Amino acid sequence: MADSEDARRRRAAVSQAREFTRTTVIGGALFLLPIFVVLLVLGKVFGLMGALTEPLVNVMGVKTVGGIAASSLLTAFGVILAAFLAGLFARTPAGQAALTWIQDGVSATLPQFSLIQGVARNIGSDHEDAELPVVLVPTDAGWALGLLLEAEGDWHAVYLPGAPDMSSGSVAYAHADQIHRTDLTLKQLWMVLRGRGKGSAKIYELLGVLRAAGKA
Fold first, then answer.
1. Which residue from 36, 112, 134, 151 has the fewest beta carbons nearer than 10 Å?
2. Which residues have a Cβ under 8 Å from the Cβ of 62 and sit 6 or more positions away?
3. What are phi and psi of 77, to 5 degrees?
């Protein structure tokens, strides 16, 4: 009997270790992927800009400036200038239209893009009027944390992120009376989900308030 109990404990420990390793690797990959993409794109941009500035450097006849290769300085300046000009264009109506067209195209190809974009834009925000408010909605399994995606009319669309990976989850449609906004930031929501519910003191307080008001 004791041997059987020990075997179950060992299997449970091995299963927990595997789950921890799996979620950690996935989380690390999701963290590193955008960095690698940015580095790859920057490398391509610098390579292209270097090819454009190299003839200008040869015409100038200046090889180094302050111990730094003139071609590297000119390439960096060209990239910064191009980014500045692109930023100016993005402020124009034509630029906004182009940006919206690109985002709509990416969203159609990658449905999770809109969510990831919103989370990335607001992950460090401590403001209550974040574009993706964190809400509580009732489910069959109890109250669940979600992100309010659309609030039109009496029925609202709420994204219920998974734990510990926010990029997968489900969509629920709840009546306005059933949706209760929290003062959690997206960063705090992410930490609660990564901890599989640990660090939920603020949520317990809100549920207590809702219960006292007869809403929970």
1. 36
2. 70
3. -65, -40
